[in-house]
Design goal:
This protein is of the alpha+beta class and about 900 residues long. The protein contains 21 helices and 39 strands. Strand 32, helix 16 and strand 33 form a beta-alpha-beta unit. The N terminus and C terminus are likely disordered. It comes from Allocatelliglobosispora scoriae.
Length: about 900
Amino acid sequence: MLGRRWLTRRRALVGGAAILLLLVGITWLVTPSAATYTTDESMVTVRSGPGDSESITLDTTLFLPTGASAGSRVPAVLLAHGFGGTKTSVEDQAADFADQGYAVLIWTARGFGKSTGEIHLDAPDYEVRDAQKLLDWLAARPEIQTDAAGDPKVGVVGGSYGGALALMLSAADPRVDAIVPMITWNDLANSFLPESTGAGPEQGVFKKAWAGVFFGNSSGRSDIGSPGPRYDAQCGRFAADICAAYLRIASTGRADADAVALLRRSSPQSVIDKIKAPTLLVQGEADTLFPLSEADANARGISRNGTPVRVAWFTGGHDGGLGTKSDQDRVNFLTIQWLDHYVRKEGETPATSFTYSRINGLDAVDRGLMSAGFSVTDYPGTGGQSSTALPLGRSIAQDVANPPDGTPAAISALPGAGLASTLLNGVSVEVPGQNASFLSAELAKTMTVVGSPTVSVRAASPTGDAVLFVKLYDVGPDGQPALINSLVSPIRLTGLPKTIDTATPVKVTLPAIVREIESGHHLAVVLATSDQGYAGPPEPVVYRVEATGDITLPTVAGEPIQTADVLWRWILVGLLALLAIGLVAAILIARMRGRKTDVSVDPDLAGTPLQVRNLRKEYGNGFVAVADVSFTVERGQVVGLLGPNGAGKTTSLRVLMGLTRPTSGEISVFGHKLTPGSPVLSRIGSLVEGPGFLPHLNGEQNLKAYWRATGRAWEDAHFDEAVAIAGLGDSIHRRVKTYSHGMKQRLAIAQAMLGLPELLVLDEPTDGLDPPQIAEMRRVLGRYATDGRAVLVSSHLLAEVEQTCSHVVVVHRGQVVASGKVDEIVGDTPTTVFEVSDLDLAQRALDKLHVPYAVESERTLVVQLDHIPRSEAVAALVNAGVGVDRVAPRRRLEDAFLALVGDSTAGSGDR
């Protein structure tokens, strides 16, 4: 006995506590402490313009890491905001850089917010010169590291307008050590006047919607009701030459040579040979303003200088926001890695490999999109490493009409809507008669397109000219088309013949994309005559158009990226290993003590879907959500869980689904004691918190994505049976965005039914449905509770529970006040319903009995019999010559419910 004394329960607990403390210590070691910083706001006066002839003030904020001083200097980041923003637009990003030990200077660009001056669109003499003066200001700060007198150690980071500034500043000032331009342009003229056959911006098609967003963001008002330093009714705070160029282009839809030269003055293209700072180019795949081709042009131009360049494509952009969470993490990692090496002079030289991402599914935890990252050693450009030719089907020339004044117009994107534009991602509105579609052959196997597809088109026009918008759609087996990232290729064709037979094919380069095209899908080339985002010819005319030959699809052999959080995976593996060691030790101790963990099934409950015993949930502040709840759900039953707001219904369901732990009590599912993560949860299907569907996928694709996230085999999903029970029919192949609320509820029920779980738990399944949809949902639940399955429904619709459920549990103030069959809960009542053949004759007979009654319908009377037996009332009606078709007691579940709980509405919401 003395040899086993160390194996006491007390010592086992102490050992477990030691392991826990070890885990806490490791977590503390690997978790970075929260960095602190101070901020210093000031209005900085700078002289810029030609010959520094102009004096303006810039609204700035300097973020300084705590401890930065003349004796402990730190490197700096100049962080620029996007067009229409102010310094506050990048405050969060500045704080992140400061947490990494960088001093960060943010400022409001000239012409915006509280800063004075006019907007010149990142012109060398103005915005670029302003930034150079800010470099001077940084170099003079005693806390900033320098490479030489007046030369700060500094990287420049910015997105869109700020990204172009980073490129232009690095070309103008050799003091810049590294730059990270994001979602920005190479040629501003080409960005606003694109032409996809290579004709150049003079022949480009005006991107009027995005240009209007830019022009509209120049009003100079910093706050509503508070005018900026200068506000012009027509030009806002734009410089006169910029304003005049915009007005000319917007009026004619064409650019003259002066306007193109002015835009190129503000373009990195004009100074690309002078950029020597190592450059990390981050560009968005969902971007109709500055597409991937702009970053490609910057990368090719800068690399010719021998400058280190890295290109990273991610799933966001002006139309896609920040992209997926994994993309945000990847971009942040690459940015810090780049700055740490080239500015801080720490760490290994970053790779110059090319990285890209593609959407690859639904995040079952965050209910958002997931993306996978890939890497290629050498940047392939938008042409890809190789290509595949996909033949178009039988091509027949078609007539398309250009609408007068461009109205009505097709819709492909929502310029300026930011993240809201993702609601339209992949969706478009084509106007009948204004487009021609040409379908490719079916893909025999899945392929990932990375780069710019190309296609040949030809056209005939009675005027000799045509403006067309070429689009590439991904068409699924159900025939539903998706416009890839809402991208459009405008072309302006001149010198066209009047008949298509003599027209010469023209090669069109489509926008670069990253898209997995699944086997069985087709690609469709659409030639449209209008687009809401662009200016087209105002005169009505009919063109004849045709897409010919093949669609050439570029591909890249990318390797999956080991993301920056791999370290944390290894840490997690280590923690799990320690936990496993602790668990093994606990099991050994228990065995050596002769104790065994009872994991057997309670044989008396093995056939019972659910038994809840003395459930209690109390929170740390003393609030009791559930006091004492006990009930049982048997096979074949549809059980309704009822109670007023605050009764504890939802809390009970959350405990049941393992989403929260009870304070005390026990839940048994088919005889297994239920705990969070318990394997027996796989026998339960639930709809307790909103399912969250991807609107651009159809119902089947959403259900498949959900099932894949469970890790179980598809053949175990019983997909067809679940869809049949839910009554979805052919709607399962429609996109969820086209579903009514009722259809989405059915899809949610079908998701809960996948795998045909033996117990279905639903919280308010009829919420928001109209009466016909509620009636159908009632039938759905009834159909499910067969073959030994059971359903538990929480609802506030008492009438529906009465008609849907076989049993009911009434909860009030966290306790069960009644449970049993619905008929038993309703009980008997003196109120009786009579359905009669002659309403007038029946009323006269009841008048003689001196009983109160009410007419419910043309054949139905509701009678309060009190002390008169029903048999006597029936006899009186029959003796009066009235046919009595139905006699039934009238007491609704609502009456019983109110009798049980009164009019209490404890709590402000369900618990």
